[in-house]
Every structure is written in C-alpha cells, then in structure tokens.
UniProtKB/TrEMBL annotation:
Gene3D superfamilies assigned: 3.40.630.30
Superkingdom of this protein's organism: Bacteria
One Pfam family per UniProt: Acetyltransf_1
Stretches assigned to the N-acetyltransferase domain: 2-152
PANTHER family reported in the protein's UniProt record: AMINOALKYLPHOSPHONATE N-ACETYLTRANSFERASE-RELATED (PTHR43877:SF2), AMINOALKYLPHOSPHONATE N-ACETYLTRANSFERASE-RELATED-RELATED (PTHR43877)
Annotated source species: Kosakonia oryzendophytica
Keywords in alphabetical order: Acyltransferase, Transferase
Name of the molecule in the record: Putative acetyltransferase
GO molecular function: acyltransferase activity, transferring groups other than amino-acyl groups
Amino acid sequence: MYSINDATAAQPDVIALIDELDRYQRALYPAESNHLLDLAALPAQKLILRKIRHTEGATVGCGAVVLNGDGSGEMKRVFIDPRHRGQRLGEILIAALEQEAAARFCHTLRLETGIRQLAAVKLYERCGYQTCRAFAPYVDDPLSIFMEKTLIADLRFAMQ
C-alpha cells in the first residue's frame, strides 16, 4: 500500500529521491540540456510538492508543480523509485498534483522532459499531456520534449 503526502524540499527523503533523479538525468544528457531546478530555493506559495510513501515507511516517489502566477504551472521533479515502477504510481502522483494545482486556480500545466526518457513521455501521454512548443524559460533543444495539459478550460467553472 502507498500513500501520497504533502512534502517539503528540505525533507531528507525527498532530497535523496531528487539526488537519484539528478544522477540519472546527468547520465543521459549534457549539462546544457539538464534543467535541474532547486525546489528549496522557491517560495512555499509557488510550490506544490508531494511524495509517495510505502506502508513500510520508505519514500518511493515525488513530484512538484511550480506555480507561475499567471494561471499556469510547470510539472517538475516527477520520479518513482525504479523498484516501485509498474504500479501506476506515476499516474496517481500526477493526478494528485493536478488536483491541487487546479484547486489553486492553475488552468494549464506544462513540462519539459528528455527524448531519452520514453517511459516518462508515455506516462505523461497516458495522463493527457500533449506535445507543444518550448515555453519560457526554455528554448528549443533537440534533446527536450515539451508537453502541456489544460486543467481548467474556463476558470469561471473552477469558482463554483
């Protein structure tokens, strides 16, 4: 059994997962194609961060949304421990992040992932994300795939 919990970027279990993700991405891409955002440097009101815990106590996944203040957000740092993949934990985590983002009036989520992370691309596609053009602060990069999903088509409906 697993649970999804609020998290902070200063928690040692979250730091350990992000370090593992960083090592993985550094092995796949050159430094200029790695967009490794330090979540701890962000103001708390701009960040949604969740972690997945196994009933035995281990933290096995994490993910974040950075809210941009214009009604959009960026999905960052989504990672599931390889030993716990194949159980749809990514979909559950993304749904939890999307739900909280929509509750904070975020109408669109975007993300950048790499071309060598085919499992991640398939995960995002299963969750309804579609490819799009590079968005700020990114520029076109042949090693990047940019995706987006509309969470709330009309914000007036979110306030009801």
